[in-house]
Design brief:
This protein has helices spanning 10-27, 40-48, 55-65, 82-90, 111-116; strands at 2-3, 32-37, 70-75, 97-98. By secondary structure, it is an alpha+beta fold. The protein has a single domain (2-116), classed as Nucleotidyltransferase, domain 5, CATH 3.30.420. It has a two-stranded antiparallel sheet with strand order 1-4. A two-stranded parallel ribbon has the order 2-3.
Length: 117
């Protein structure tokens, strides 16, 4: 999870989150990626190109996507992406920067996985 301070535009934050997701895929050497975002404007900008407020981020995403075998950016409604919403809400209480967990997510995050175990 990446915690940012001072960015108040939801679309900019969503675009940065897409860039972070793509960077994570590259870090763990995944070559086929389907990245979901609950902001349709961000997905449209990534898929079609954009020179708007977050155009530079979109350009970075498009350039980094070229190094992967397959990348698909899709819109997913917030109601179907409960874990991502919980992670975002939990970030309100974290310090600025990157936060990573490998085995056990913070309490209240990814409960559907924990309950299935």
């Amino acid at each position: 999870m990446l915690v940012l301070k001072g960015i108040k535009e939801p679309e900019i934050v969503e675009a940065i989150a897409c860039r972070e997701g793509l960077a994570l895929a590259q870090d763990i050497q995944v070559t086929r990626v389907r990245l979901a975002c609950n902001n349709a404007n961000v997905i449209s900008s990534i898929n079609q190109g954009s020179n708007g407020v977050y155009g530079q981020i979109v350009m970075e995403i498009q350039e980094e996507s070229k190094s992967l075998e397959s990348v698909e950016f899709i819109h997913e409604r917030r109601s179907t992406n409960i874990d991502a919403h919980r992670i975002a809400r939990s970030s309100l209480y974290e310090d600025e920067g990157r936060h990573v967990w490998f085995l056990y997510p913070p309490y209240g995050v990814c409960n559907s996985y924990a309950e299935a175990s």
